[in-house]
Q: What sequence folds into this?
């Protein structure tokens, strides 16, 4: 077992687990796994900057309090949820408030045959045997994945049968509120059968309380499946956000998009294991950070078999003394010939106090591959700024236009419609806010 990451007193976490244990869904096999997971978390400890993969993450709040489960308070103002929902989407929707499914605000009509959309809590309360092996796969994961296994209380389970394509995107909305020093622990399961296709958009948001959202997604795609997953991170200004996706691919395609603008500290992560020739992944991530935020993005794509491809593109825009980081690792195993993997990271600094970190990593043990990475960072080009101002734009408008063009390339690859529109609106709102005006 790995050594502890730090000397933090973790006894409050055991106390929080003991207090919640009787209310956590699932007994028998899951109760045993929860106990094993908690003990693993306590043995490993909270990662520090000395751990390579956590070098740029800000986890200090986890050393201050154990973040026991958020209370099931009265429903929030309807307007709070309206601001997070995507206008123009008429398909299925699940709404979670403080980590619990809000069935009254969810919409489960129109799923169609071959599409199952359920609350994780409901699945676990009926035994959860179908998830036993999947949850067991993470028993040797790191400390914070173990904490998620121990404390997960709800989430969603999306299962799509072979050859089925839902008629509309599936929308997931998460709202945290009145949760000062409280935690929201979510586990999401996505399973697509052979030849199935789906589009899922998740939105995370919250109020001004200092809460911890800990979400872990497990994705399994069979041969011929295609999943497009968009994650909008719009947490409250004092929140700690941790969202991690673990994907296992057959000869399937995963297109993942991240647009992060919220939280005081956020970590977004994608880990992919290719298991069959013909798998493909694209990962587009945009982080817009300001006002002292710390946004961290990490990926690890494990090309364990031949003939798979991956494309990663990252854009970071930093203002107001922010810190934003991207760490991208591509592993190509011995024998994984014909791998094609590219990675490009670009960061734009709008403030002299801002800090951008980029850490590309290629680990290659095969010789017939095409792998590349590139990274750039810098300020707005004065010549481009002058060009726009010479054509009648004031400096503020010219700067905003250049920043918008910098990130628009990644958003433009989303299919036209409400989802792409809301991403453009999120970026425009950030550009119009006080963070963009920093110098």
A:
């Amino acid at each position: 077992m790995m050594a502890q990451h730090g000397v933090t007193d973790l006894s409050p976490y055991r106390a929080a687990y003991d207090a919640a244990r009787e209310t956590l869904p699932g007994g028998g096999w899951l109760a045993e796994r929860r106990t094993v997971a908690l003990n693993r978390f306590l043995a490993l400890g909270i990662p520090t900057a000395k751990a390579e993969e956590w070098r740029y993450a800000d986890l200090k709040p986890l050393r201050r309090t154990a973040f026991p489960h958020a209370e099931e308070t009265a429903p929030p103002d309807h307007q709070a949820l309206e601001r997070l929902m995507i206008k123009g989407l008429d398909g299925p929707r699940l709404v979670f408030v403080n980590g619990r499914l809000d069935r009254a605000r969810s919409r489960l009509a129109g799923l169609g045959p071959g599409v199952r959309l359920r609350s994780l809590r409901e699945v676990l309360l009926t035994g959860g045997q179908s998830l036993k092996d999947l949850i067991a796969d993470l028993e040797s994961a790191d400390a914070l994945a173990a904490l998620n296994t121990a404390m997960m209380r709800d989430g969603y389970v999306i299962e799509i049968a072979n050859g089925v394509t839902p008629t509309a995107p599936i929308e997931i909305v998460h709202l945290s509120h009145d949760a000062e020093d409280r935690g929201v622990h979510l586990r999401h399961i996505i399973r697509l059968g052979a030849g199935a296709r789906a589009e899922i958009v998740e939105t995370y948001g919250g109020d001004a309380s200092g809460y911890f959202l800990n979400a872990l997604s497990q994705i399994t795609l069979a041969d011929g499946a295609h999943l497009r997953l968009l994650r909008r991170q719009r947490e409250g200004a004092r929140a700690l956000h941790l969202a991690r996706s673990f994907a296992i691919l057959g000869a399937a395609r995963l297109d993942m998009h991240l647009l992060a603008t919220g939280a005081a500290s956020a970590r977004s992560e994608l880990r992919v294991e290719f298991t069959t020739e013909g798998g493909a992944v694209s990962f587009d991530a945009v982080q817009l950070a300001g006002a002292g935020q710390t946004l961290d993005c990490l990926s690890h794509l494990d090309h364990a078999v031949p003939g798979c491809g991956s494309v990663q593109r990252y854009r970071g825009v930093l203002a107001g003394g922010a810190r934003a980081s991207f760490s991208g690792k591509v592993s190509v195993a011995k024998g994984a010939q014909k791998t094609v993997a590219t990675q490009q990271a670009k960061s734009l600094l709008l403030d002299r106090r801002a800090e951008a970190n980029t850490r590309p990593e290629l680990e290659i043990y095969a010789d017939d591959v095409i792998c590349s990475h590139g990274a750039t960072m810098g300020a707005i080009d004065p010549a481009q700024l002058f060009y726009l101002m010479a054509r009648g734009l004031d400096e503020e408008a010219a700067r905003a236009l250049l920043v918008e063009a910098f990130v628009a390339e990644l958003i433009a690859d989303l299919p036209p419609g409400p989802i792409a529109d809301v991403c453009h609106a999120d970026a425009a709102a950030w550009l119009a806010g006080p963070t963009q005006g920093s110098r």
The two ends are 47 Å apart (CA to CA). The chain has a mean pLDDT of 92. DSSP finds ten helices and 19 strands in the chain. Residues 11-276 form one domain.
